[in-house]
From TrEMBL:
Belongs to the Cdh family. Keywords: Cell membrane, Hydrolase, Lipid biosynthesis, Lipid metabolism, Membrane, Phospholipid biosynthesis, Phospholipid metabolism, Signal, Transmembrane, Transmembrane helix. It is a single-pass membrane protein. Its EC number is 3.6.1.26. It is an enzyme of class 3 (hydrolase). InterPro entries: CDP-diacylglyc_Pase (IPR003763), HIT-like_sf (IPR036265), TAT_signal (IPR006311). Pathway: Phospholipid metabolism; CDP-diacylglycerol degradation; phosphatidate from CDP-diacylglycerol: step 1/1; Lipid metabolism. It catalyses: a CDP-1,2-diacyl-sn-glycerol + H2O = a 1,2-diacyl-sn-glycero-3-phosphate + CMP + 2 H(+). Residues 1-38 form the signal peptide. One of its GO terms (biological process) is CDP-diacylglycerol catabolic process. This is CDP-diacylglycerol diphosphatase. It comes from Mycolicibacterium peregrinum (Mycobacterium peregrinum). It is found in: Cell membrane. One of its GO terms (molecular function) is CDP-diacylglycerol diphosphatase activity.
Length: 288
């Protein structure tokens, strides 16, 4: 497992290539050939491959050579079952909302196979596209966020991670919580490290009251965050009698601006968080 800071293998030139993706999308060459003679077991699926889900239909037949309208398609080691496509989201012309979507059938955060030791690190894959987001007005690096919604409150039943910008109010609340030593650096303390974060409501007004999120500061983006969520939060809550599962959870990851590493937020509406939790992280995203 490799520790990765806020680096990006796409870089400055790639950002402009992605903006021109509708005309021509260059190959990234990201896949690493497997060891000679090695044959990794196929990953997934979770859900029926014949399901009529728009995001799944968008990527089902996509390949690195034939992207089917995607900005990029990557099959690590040539393995489609562990691959992903990157598609334009909310504002495609500005590239302020990208979607990283597995090319295997994965309905969402609730899929049991996502917590396995052999599962792809989809959040690491998503993080590799942070550098394609637009720079700020002063040329500063984008204040990015990676987010996935719960099964309780999402629009598409095909796993997709938003690569977009963080709401400025959310950034201020997260930074203050870190300054106040409210965010644990120990994953074993994640369940009890609860902070209040405001975002925006459906009409883009700042929320008057914060919502509750479990917050963890990790140095490593190249890990299985679904497994960590299940092991450190969901399983202990269920053991204690809470009526909660992975299907109720939502995740958001962003850069820690007050020190090293990344801030990981998890929330739900089932486990009795104080402040009250959420089952959708759209309020913390700034899609432009």
């Amino acid at each position: 497992m490799t520790t990765t800071n806020n680096t990006n293998r796409i870089g400055f030139v790639r950002r402009f290539a992605l903006i021109a993706a509708a005309a021509a999308v260059p190959a990234m060459g990201l896949a690493v050939a497997p060891t000679a003679g090695a044959q990794a077991a196929a990953f997934g699926p979770c859900g029926n491959v014949n399901d009529k889900v728009d995001l799944w239909k968008d990527v089902r037949y996509a390949t690195p050579a034939h992207k089917e309208g995607a900005i990029d398609v990557v099959f690590p080691g040539g393995d489609k079952s562990r691959g992903y496509a990157v598609r334009q989201g909310h504002h495609p012309a500005q590239l302020t909302d990208l979607l990283v979507i597995p090319t295997a059938r994965e309905t969402g955060i609730e899929c049991d196979n996502l917590t396995g030791s052999d599962a792809p690190h989809y959040f690491k894959d998503a993080h590799d596209y942070v550098g394609t987001l637009p720079l700020g007005n002063q040329g500063q690096n984008p204040d990015w966020a990676l987010g996935i919604n719960s099964a309780d409150n999402r629009g598409q039943d095909q796993l997709h991670i938003h690569v977009t910008l963080l709401d400025p109010t959310a950034r201020a609340d997260i930074d203050q919580a870190v300054k106040n030593h409210k965010v644990t650096k120990d994953v074993k303390g994640w369940k009890d490290s609860v902070i209040g974060v405001r975002g925006h409501n459906e009409v883009s007004q700042i929320e008057k009251s914060p919502r509750g999120y479990r917050a963890w500061n990790t140095d490593n983006i190249d890990q299985n965050f679904f497994s960590a969520l299940n092991t450190q939060i969901v399983a202990p809550l269920k053991k204690a009698g809470a009526s909660v599962g992975m299907n109720n959870e939502t995740l958001l990851i962003t850069k820690n601006h007050q020190g090293p590493g990344f801030i990981v937020l998890a929330s739900d509406e089932k486990s009795g968080l104080t402040p009250f939790g959420v089952n959708n992280i759209e309020r913390l995203l700034d899609k432009g």
